[in-house]
Amino acid sequence: MLACFILLVVFGLLGLLVLVLARRHEDTLMRVFVDDRDYLGAFMRMATAIGVVGTAPGMLAYAGLWRLCCCRAIRRDALAFLISRPAVSGTGTLDPETGRFGLSEKGPAIRRLVRMSSLPTDRCVFDIGNLMKPLFCVMDLELRPLASLFRRRQRLQLGLSDSNLAQTAEYLKVATTTLVFDLAEAGVLARLPRPRRPLSALRRLIGDPELRSKVPCSDGVARSAIELQRLYLDAAREHVAGAAAASLEVHELLRRWDEVLTALESQPALLFGRLDWVSKRALLEQAGAGLEFAARKKIDLKYHELGTGYFARLEDEGLAPRLVGDDEIERALLEAPERSPARRRSQLLRSLAASGIAARIGWDRIEIPKGSLRKQVIRLDDYRR
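and the corresponding structure tokens:
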């Protein structure tokens, strides 16, 4: 066991050393291979491959550690909600292999519950890729980002989330997820049943636009996507009813959530223009009936084009209700939300611009020159808390 651990450490250090050297001396390598860029590309690919292979065991162990301790309550208690959420927030898609219509665009690509590597093909429900990125900062000899891994509060990213155009679907996706995560952190959802085989359950639920498929749960009862959503809706209602002071926004959210689930159970067509997958499916059935797959797929893709797509036309014709007006959208483009990290960062940037201070602004830092050799560094990570 000790020998295996030592080998993992040695291979990891060697791989990391190769990545660091290749990254730090890339300009020198470009001068060496100036006459043949193909060799440069091959060399960099080889160095990257050696580094990835060498660091892979360490990355797997690191990902496994986070899997054991990161956001366990949310991952356990909100999982059934997330795999059934495409019934409300899915954008719909035509499967290129079968030609059948499914509820979710991203759902079929999900391979894991939690990310286990830094590879882009490792698509998952809970994505901890943001917790892996600080490790790669070592290649630039940056050690400060590693300190962020020890903060008590960490960001949990979701890989199972379609990009909605319908405002009702987007509102329900964000608001219900926020509410469910709050309830999970409070321990309110621990008693709810969970799907026995989550990934198989996900594929089965998103593959049935009729919403009749059921998946087995830990309590021995098989449930449909709507029934799983109602478990969380009922739990939220019970919690809000017992709360000392629940906001009007929460009551409005619960009302809209129930309204949409009821319509999906009885008359999904009533949600045309409000849910993306319902709207797209109706367009495909009406405008794409009898057409070949390529023509139907064109309708599928055209639906999402901004400004000129089919959904934009539905909005222009008043067939897709809007929850926010043009003035609110314009204000949101220019002003970050109150009491948010984005508001604090934007205020900092505007104050620098108003003061006429020349600064170099990057993704995670602002550098202000203080002479020929000195500079002041403001870490934007400090404004994301």
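(Above: one complete record from the training split.) The longest strand covers residues 365-369.
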